[in-house]
Each structure stands twice: as C-alpha cells, then as structure tokens.
Amino acid sequence: MPASETARALLAGFEVPESIAENMALFLRLVRKVLDEYDSGLRRTFDVLLADAIRANADEAADTPAERAAFEDLERVIDGLDERSTTLVMRAFVAYFHLANICEENYRVASLRARESAVPTSADEDPINDITVAYRQLVDECGRGKALALLRRLEFRPVFTAHPTEARRKAVEGKIRRIAELLEGRAGLDGVALAENERRLLQEIDALFRTSPIAHKKPTPVEEADTIVDIFDNTLFDMVPDVYRRFDDWELGEKAGTVPPVCPAFFHPGSWIGSDRDGNPNVTARVSRAVAEKFRGHVLARLADATETTGRNLTLDAISTPPSEQLMNLWSHQVEMSEALTARALGISASELHRACMLVMAERLRATIERTADIMYASPDDFLADLRVVQSSLARAGAARTAYGPVQRLIWQTETFGFHLVEMEFRQHSLVHSRALEDIREHGRWGERGELEPMTREVIDTFRAIAQIQRRNGVDAARRYIISFTKSAQNVADVYELAHLSFAHECDVPVLDVIPLFEQVEDLENAVSTLDDMIRLPEVQRRLAETGRRLEVMLGYSDSSKDAGPTSATLVLHRAQAEIARWAEDNGIDLVLMHGRGGAVGRGGGPANRAVLSQPAGSVNCCFKLTEQGEVIFARYGDPTLARRHVESVVGATLLQSAPSIEWVNTETTEKYAGLAAELDGASRERYLELLHTDGFAEWFSECTPLAEVGLMPIGSRPSKRGLGAKSLDDLRAIPWIFSWSQARINLAAWYGLGTACERVGDLERLREAYAEWPLFTTFIDNVEMSLSKVDERIARLYLALAERDDLAAAVLEEMELTRRWVLAIVGDEWPLQHRRVLGPVIRMRLPFVNVLSVTQALALRRLRDEESPLTPEERERLVYLILCTVSGVAAGLQNTG
Questions:
Q1: What's the rounded Cα separation, in Å, for the pair 696 and 685?
Q2: What radius of gyration, in Å, describes the C-alpha atoms of the chain?
Q3: pLDDT tens sequence across 496-510
C-alpha cells in the first residue's frame, strides 16, 4: 500500500474536519518516511504501535474485549522493545504531536479567516470580533454614553510567568514555526513548488526527530525572559495595534483612520519572569536588573525601528502639508538638542519637516538605549508628546489618514509597551519578609550588631533593584509587589517596612503597590477581614489617595485547589470574589482582581472568556488580569491570528461582564443555587481531604506518578518545592502536583470529589438545571468534562500499580468512575466531549498517540523502580532520559497540562 494510503488508513474513522484529517495524514506520511530513511525497522515498530493504540480506542463509549486485547498487545510490544528502539520511536511520537498541534492551529486560523471574510462590511457589528459584539450589547442595554465610559475603563492585563509547565525546548519552537509556515504556504501549490515544499517539510521534520526533546540544562531566569521577547517580536508588537484598529474599523466605519480613535490602548502586559522569587533562589536582584534591562533595550529598539520606518514614509512636503507652529517648535528644540542629528535628518528630508522630526525621534530612542544623557528620552510620556505633536500637525494640514493611520499605530504601541515592554511584578513569600525583619531587628539593618542572613540581604537588594528599574524604565515598569500566602495585613505592613529599611534616604524608596495573594482556603475565607485591616495602613492609604483608590488583590487557583479539591476551590474562589467585590463597593475601592490561573483545570484553566463571564457582579469592572503560564503562552500567543482572536475574546467578555443582563444572571443564579453550592462544597471537600489525609498518601503519590522525574526536567528555573523547610505535600508546588497527575492520565486534581458530591446531592434534574442556568457551574462542568476526555482508566491502573496501596488505588478508580458517570449524565453525553463537534473528535484522534507514550512511560517507571533488578548508573540515566522524552510528548499531546 502506498505511504499516503497507509497514513490515511491508520487515521480512518476519526470524524475530524477535512483539512485537519488531510494535514494529519500528510504529517503522518512524512514522519513515517523520515523513520523509514533512518531505520525501516523503527518505522515498522511505529506502525504496529500506532495500529494497536488505535484499535485499543476504537469505541469511545464502551470498553470492549477487542479494545482490551489491543491494549494488551500494545503493552506487550512496548515491553519487548530494546531501550534504544523505544527511545527513538518515542521521539518520533513526540515529534508527531508537535505536528498535530500545527494541524489544529492551521485549521483554526483558516476557519477564522473564512468566517471573517463572510461578514459584510455593512454589518452593525463584526460577529467574529467579540469586542464589537460586547460594545453593541452595552450600547443597547446602557446607552452609548455609558458604553463609551465603560470602554474607556477597559483593561486586559495578561501576566506572563515562567512556571515549569512548558515541556517544549526552545530549540524545537523554531522548527515548529518553520513547519507551520510551510504548511500554511502549501495551499495552492502544485508541480515543482509543491515538491520543494515537501522537501523542506521533510528536512524540518527530520531535524525535529533528530533533536532531543529534552534540553541539556534548565534555563536561567534571564534566558526565560526570551519567551516574552520572542512572543513580543513574533506577535504582540504588531498584533495588539491590529486589535485596536479592527475595533475602530467597525465602530467608525469609513471615518476609521481619518479621525481620533475610539479604541483605548487597553492591553497592558505584565511579567513574573526574572522577578518572581517565591521559592526560586535563582531569581536574585541582579537577575531582575538584567531582565528589566533586556526588556527595556528590546522594546526601545523596536520602537526606534518602527519610528524610523514611519518617518521615512512621511514624504509629505511643506507645500502639500505645511507644518504647524508646534511642529516647528519641536524641530527647533531638536536642533538645540543635537545639531548633528538634525543636520543628518534635514539632509534626507530637506522640505519634509514631519519626516525630519520623526527621524530625529528615532535616533533619540536609540540614544535612550545607550542612555546618552544629552538627547535621550526621559520617559515614554515625552516620546508620546512628540508623536502627538507630529500627529496634530499632520491632521491640521489635512493629512488625517497619515496622522490617524501609521502615526496612531506608533502611539498605540508606545501606550501599550512603554519603555519597559512588560510591567515586572515582584513576588515573595510572606514568611521570607517576617524572617528578614526579625533578622534586621536583631542585627541592625546595616548588620551593625552582627552579620545579616543572605536571604535578608537579598530582600534588601530586591527593593534597591526595584528602585533602580523605576529610575531607568519608569515607575510602571516595576511597582507591583505580590505577597504569597498572605495571612494578615501585617504581611503587607512588613513589605512597606522592609522597603523603607532598605534605603538611607526616604526619597530613594520606590513606589510600591503591595498586592496580597490569597491562595489557601482559610486565607480566601478571611480575605475581607484582612483587606479591612490593610486599608487602614498609612502606606496603603497614601497609595489609595494617589491612585484614585485603586487596589489590586490576587487570588490563587492552584494552591486552593490542592488545599480543598477542585470543586470546593471553585466555589470558595467564587464566593471570595463576590465578598471582596461587595467590600470594595462599600469602601469606595476601584478593585482589580488578579487571577492566578494555569492551563490545567486543576489550576483554574479552561477558556478565559467563559471564566470572565461567570465572575460575580462587580468583580471585573472592565479590567481582567490573569497569569498566562507555560504551554498556554505559546498556544495563545504563538500565532498572530490566534493571539488576536484570544485577545478579542477575553476583552469582549471583560467588557460584556458589565452589561446589566450578565450581572443579573450571575447574581440571580448564584443566589438560586447557593444551597446546591453548599452541598457540593461540603461533600466534595470531605471526600478530597479523606484521600489526602490517608496515612502514607504523600509517599504513595510520589510512587504512582512521575513526580520525581518531572522535577528532573530542564523546563524552568524554578524548583518544584519551596525552600522554606516543609517536608510534605504542603511544601510541594501546585504545578508539579497537577502536572504529575496529568502525566499519569488520571488528572485527579481536576475532578476528585465531584462524583461523590453529585451522588450526595442525588438529584440529576437539579444538577442539569444548574448546568443550564448557572454560568459558574456550566463552565466548571465543561472544564471537568474536558479533563475527563484525557483520562484513561487502563493507563491509570498501570501507574497506580507502581505503588502498593490497593486501598488508595481503589478510592481513585471508584471516584473516577463516579465522576465520569455524573458529569456525562449532567451534560447529556455518552462519552466526554461527544457534543463538541470539532474538539471531541480532535482529542479522540490524539489519544492513541498519547497512549503509546503513556504506556511506555508507565513501563519505564516500573523498571526504574524495580528494586529486585537494580540498574547500573548508565542504564538508569538512559531510562530516565526515555521517561523525560515521554513526559515531553504527553505534555504536547494533552496540552493544558500544567
């Protein structure tokens, strides 16, 4: 059978969209060709494993004897392979998952473009652009004046973090991008051009297969900052102003680009990379300074290039477009500042003063990188002022399309990214601050009564680093300081006291907005009391007066979920948000809630736009802030079209959340189902804690999951445990907790306790009614169903058998079956995601490939932990490498895993 037919035959039976099926078959054919060229025996093994895995997943709704036999065949073939063959075949499967992700992204981009092209320009709103839809609904419900006021308040604040959930090497990302570009360019090719496209695809796929999926070392925090730089260069810098422009195009119609814009610069990115030191000794004050400087230099260089490009195109001469008096004053100021720069600009643009001014502005930006005092810009506000002079002059001279076209684009980019690119947010554990203060009180802040502890000196140096970053990059570059595990207002007072103790002169103390992070259930339940005490602190009162009483509060999804279970954490977080929102209204606080969400359901993951719309009334206020972590960053922002769709979706929901109809639904349904929420909370938490508090649970967890091996992966600078002295599950970060359960194909952190809670309620119709009416419950159940779609009981049993605790294994499997039964009954499906026309089949198509890796990983773990057959150090190293390869592949295959 020809290779193309073999590939199609292997994938037959999966009812996915035609373009996905064709591209998956194309990539499968090419991977098989690469393997055949490398070693035909490996290709045959790959085919056998894939065929067995597909037969083992033939019936989604039932576990048939044929499926069980095929799964046993799969297990037997993998167990019989030699170590080298196993590793190479697994690398082929890992490579294929990256290609499968490209196929899905390609389909989403093509579908989005097709839907957009079908929308007539005469329509009142763009149904594909959620911002225009939300704004129109606000106009209808509130009137244009109120809608415009809400639009002007709009803020979307994604905060990029370096949590170790992205299991993909940076070296692999470049290959993925090139393959994606080749696939996109393939449409419409034939003959020699098509053959050349395939040759280049084979070249990249061969290199992808031959490249180890495991990096040789963990990245440093400075290297991790390249994640943001990469996303900025490939997506954000051009995508964000496109989002603004698209809204203006629909709202202003033919006037768009000829009048002042309606859309504000609402996108304000933040970062924890190089500034989050909670439990990460690799993030020091020196590192923070280096990362801030990297961001500063990079954004200034991009702004300088964009300014020069825009300036060179401003060939409007003084006859057609006479400069305004303000522009001539600007030019005079530039001449006084640097005759050399202005002479050079004038030589290029003798009678084109707008052009000359812009060229000088570009050189001033480059001088700002080098900090050349005579000609550098002191702040982005100064640069914006110059841009607005140019814009105003052009508009007055009748060149409105230039003024509100390319020059407005530059203004939007500067308003969005400033001279800092991202707003760095510092984070540290509350215990570190209290210990540092004890040390200072005992030994003096300069160590005059004895040497200070290294951590104390680092805390002091951190505040000095913040001050330096603010002086160089502006206050917004580094004014937020987050306190992990905030227990009381005293934790906030400690930070302000330490900041003052770090400087000899009061004028050197940086501006700080101290943000309490509530992440454990008890702290969430006491949040309002803590906030009451916090706003009485003199330092907080002073900042409230300076910021128009704006206050940020962060909520942690990960630790609350690990603390009380996913169902209880979801309900506790929702209740805490409602209480904090009411507290803010009572105290005249302009509240910003920051959501510490991850990609996995157990960390608050799932579609962000649906999460926004299910928030309590008053908790969003046209500002949505969340962490974007790990594999989520690349998935949401890696492709410009998909990034634009993500931003428009979340921002549209953020705007729409203020609509009276949405607030009414959330308030009414929350009250209506308060009793149900209490029942689900109590029963699920009881079941979850019963499991966690079983003697020996922590040891059992580490034995039946690849927890230790995940800790070995070079996928982030941060350790998997906090170095504060704890020696139990309490010390384990929520991220490896969730990541390990997903690798074991159990996903316990996303659903455990829900089945028991539903059983305790015992009223299916009541639960279905809540699912139909209550946005919070709808979103939660849908996310759990998504998680269950990636659970495999047969593979779970392989992992659970690694530890000799039949009681705990039985509890997990029993709750798994109970939760699956209730969730499917509530949504009306026979199997997970049955009603999702595209997503369901796509995930089902992935599972056979994932299962090969998962079975391999479980068998390798069994051998690694077999004390009766000890391994040599070399054998152990090779086996650990194989396990890490499968960890990378499972993460790529399952996605949203951390």
A1: 19
A2: 29
A3: 999 999 999 999 999
